[in-house]
Amino acid sequence: MQEPKTYFIRTYGCQMNELDTQIMAGQLEKRGLSPVEDEDNADVLIFNTCSIRDLAERKVMGKLGQIGRGKKKQALIGITGCMAMAKKDSLFRKFPHLDFVLGTNNITDLGTVVDEALISNRQIYKTDDKFEENLNYLAAKRESKIKAFVSIIRGCDKYCTYCVVPYTRGQEVSRPPESILEECKQLVDQGYKEITLLGQNVNSYGKDASWNCLFHDLLYQIDRIPGMERVRFITSHPVDITIDLMHAVRDLKSLCEFVHFPIQAGSNRILKKMHRIYTKEQYFEKVALLKQIVPNVSLGTDIIVGFPTETEAEFQETYDAIKEIRYSVGFFYAYSPRKGTPAMRWKDDIPEEVKQDRLQRLLNLQETIGNELRSEMLGQTVEVLVERLNKDHRLLKGRTRCWKKVIFEGPEALIGTLQKVKIHSFAHETLVGELVKPSSLLTVS
Ligand code: 5AD
Ligand code: SF4
Hints:
Bound molecules: 5'-deoxyadenosine, iron/sulfur cluster
Shape: globular
Helix content: 25-40%
Number of helices: 13
Distance between the termini: 54 Å
Radius of gyration: 23 Å
Strand order of the largest sheet: 2-1-3-4-5-6
Structural class: alpha/beta
Number of strands: 19
Mean pLDDT: 92
C-alpha cells in the first residue's frame, strides 16, 4: 500500500475519547496526513470506540461489518479506544479487513503502528494495561479555538461493579503537574478561554504519584496562570470530593461553579451492590456542605436504572434523591451488563420495559426540575462564553459558568469572548437573553 495522505477518525463515547481522537489526529497531521470529511475517501480510517454500554459497542460492530462488505478503496482501518481494550485481537477474527487494534494506553504509538501495518501487511495490535506518562499532549489537534480538554489523570481504581472503565482504561495514572501547567499556559497564550480538566475521577489526582500536588493544589496553580478565564473539571467520584475542593470552587476566580458528581442510585442496598463506597446519607451530607460553601453551585449527576434486583421502592429512592437535590444536569442510563465486570455474575433481571419506564420517569422529573431552575434565572445577568452561531445562524450561542446553554442576539465578532447577558425567557433547555453593557452587575450562574 502507498504512503497514506488522508485520514478520518470517527469518535464514540466520552470526552476522554474526544481528546484521544484529537491527540491521534495531531500525530497523523504531524506526519503529513490531512483530514477528509468523507470516511470513504480516507487512506487511514479509525474508529475510536466506547464500551460503556452494549449499544455503544453494537453501533461500532454494525459499522465495521458494513465497511468489511463494501470496502471501496484500499484504506488502513483501525480500532482504538475502549473496545480495542475489551476485545483485543479477537476483533481480527470477527473483522478480517481490520489492519490494527490500538488500546487506550497506546494512542501515541499510532504513527509506529501505521508504519508497521504499511510495511509488514500484517494485522498489528498494541493494548498495554498501563498508561505511559510521557504522552505528548501538546500535539493534540483541537477543533475549537475557544475551549479545550486537558487530560490530568487517566484510568480508574474505583471498580464499581457495573463498569468496564477500570479494565478498558487501566489503573489510575496522574499526569505530572508541570506538564499540565505547561499545556494550560500554552492554551491561554493561544487565546483559549475555557479549559476542561479531564479524568475518569479527577479528584483522585496526585494520589498515585510521588509529587506533593493533589487535585485542589493543581486547581490553585492553574488559577494563577495569567489570563486563565474559565476552568471546569469532569468527572468526580463523591467519595473523593473534599472540603479543600469545595473551597477551591468557592475561592478560585477561574473555577466554574458546576460540579458533576454522579450519585448513580438512591438506595443504600443498590449503592453497596454497585460498590460505590458511600451511603445515600454520606452523599447528601456532601451535597449539603457543597451548597453551604458554594451557595450558587450547580450540580450534575449520572444515574443507572434497572441495576440487577433493583425494586420499585429502591428506584423510588433514586427518584426522591433527584427531587431533593435538584441537579441542573442529569444523565440517565438503563443498566447494561458488561463482560468482565463483577455485576455480570448477577442476572440482568429487570425487564427492558421496566428499565425504560424508570428512565422515562426520571427524564420527566428532570425536565420539571430543569424548568424550575431556569425560571429562577429569569431577570438575572449571567456571564456567557460565546462559542458559535446557533443552528439557524441568527443568534449567538454559548454557556454560562454553570454550563447552562444561552442564546442571544449579537454580532458574530463576539464569538470567543465572554459577555454579560440578561435572561428573559427559555425554550426547552436553552436560556434566551439579551446582551447587556459591560458595566452591568453580574450574577454568577
Ligand atoms: N450500564 C449502564 N450505565 C453505565 N454507566 C457505566 N457503566 C454502565 C453500565 N454497565 C454509566 C454510569 C457512568 C456513566 C459514564 O455511564 O452512570 O457514570
Ligand atoms: Fe466506572 Fe466507577 Fe470508575 Fe466511574 S468511578 S469510571 S463508574 S468504575
